[in-house]
Structure formats: C-alpha cells, structure tokens
Amino acid sequence: MLTFIGLGLYDERSITVEGRDSLRDADRAYVEFYTSKLLGATVDDLERHHDVDIEVLERADVEQHPERVLDAAETESVAFCTAGDTMIATTHTDLRLRATERGIDTRVVHGVTAETAAASLTGLQNYRFGKATTLPFEYAHAGSDVPDSVLDTITANRDRGLHTLVFLDIKVGDDTAGADVRDGDEYMTASHAASRLAAHHPDLVAVVVARAGSPDPLVHADTLSNLAERDFGDPLHLLVVPGDCHLLEADALEILADAPRDKLDVV
Questions:
Q1: Which end of the chain is more exposed for a tag (fewer CB within 10 A), N or C?
Q2: Where is the Tetrapyrrole methylase domain (predicted)?
Q3: Which burial class, exposed, middle or buried, applies to 159 when counting CB atoms under 10 A from its CB (0-12, 13-18, 19+)?
Q4: 212 is in an annotated binding site
C-alpha cells in the first residue's frame, strides 16, 4: 500500500487527524520538500511529533528512480508525504500511476493547500480564480525577464475577470538575488517578484500572502511598484493578482489587506 499524505502548510501540527493516523501507522515513511516546505518544522520535528522515522527524498528519487518507494510499497504500508496537498504536484500523480501499474494499492490523504489558504486569507472567492502560474527565478529559465507564459496567464485571467494565483519559485542551490536563502534552499520573496512584474504592470494591484498557515500570516495589497519596495518577512510568499472584484471581495481586500480601493476593478 502506498499512501500519499499532505502535511499541510506550516509545521508538524498542520496535518489532518486522518493524515496523522496514516503516517503513524505506516511501516515506512518518505517525504519530499523540493516542491514546497514546512517552514515551521524540521524533519526531526516531524519524526519526534509522530514517533516515526522519515527518509527525505530528492527530486531524482521520486521522478527518475522511484523504485525504492515502489519496491517497499509492494510488501509494506508506505507513507509518501509532502507539504500542502500531496497530489497538487504532477510528479506525484506520476508516482501514483507507476504504483497502480505494478498492482500496488494507493490512497490519498489530503492536506490544506496554498490555493485554498490564499482565497481564505484574502477574502477573494475561490471560484473566481483562473489558471495559476509560477514565477521562476531568472536563472531558472535562462532569462532576466518574466516568462511570457506568466504574463499571458495574468492577462488572460484578467480579460475574463478572474484572479491569478502566482506561486513564487523555490530552488536548492546558491544565493540568488531576490531570494531568502535558508539551509541552501532559496525562496523567492514577494518584493522581488513584484519588482519583476512591475516592469510590465507597475500600477496593477496585487496581494502578498506570506506565511499562510502559520501563527502570523501576512496579507497586504498594493500596486506592484509599491509592493516591490516592501519587506514581507519570512517565507513562504505568494502573490495574487485580482481580476474583477465583487463588492464583498473589494471590501475584504480593503479591510483585510489595506488595498487601495480606487485601484481595484469593482463590478
């Protein structure tokens, strides 16, 4: 049996009760933190809290050489864990399909995701979000500008009156401009992302969501050019670019995120 478990957004307590029980009952547990991380907990914290041994997998272990996980799941109960909801990343769907092809039973235990947290914290209605996009570090796409795919997604969503969730890149490597680097992991900051997007849309309003799921989440809305000048503290950060706002959504952004109401598109 291979059980995919979402750990939630922040620390060792963010997991659901069902996920906690499944993790503690597993014969073997793996976790990957290359798609996202729990900034409020280390692997040691997870192991102590749940009384399990957890092996950390690198990207290649999951995407190119998953035999270790699959072989174990043929004879044991195996937990495969990630931050957020474990099936949001397509690589994990691939792992599930590989397991199914080998006759291994699979199960998914969902966790809280950044998508739902962004809607909850900003007050924007979840069903009014369009396609999401990810802003990569400059070096990650061989160019200093914002990829056309990111700009096209924002424009297409706004043309339809929809909000855009912009994930900010996470990489393992050397210090990078615009990154918050911790233990070799780089987290793009919201101010750096805003400065890059402001080169194309300086007066467009966006919303910063920082540390969703933590005891001190931050939500702040302003024009991209103004957001580029601010420090939003510890990661993880993401951006939301609102489309057309219902009156209640505009009220929420103004009250909860200090949004400049006169710059919102209110319908």
A1: C
A2: 1-227
A3: exposed
A4: yes
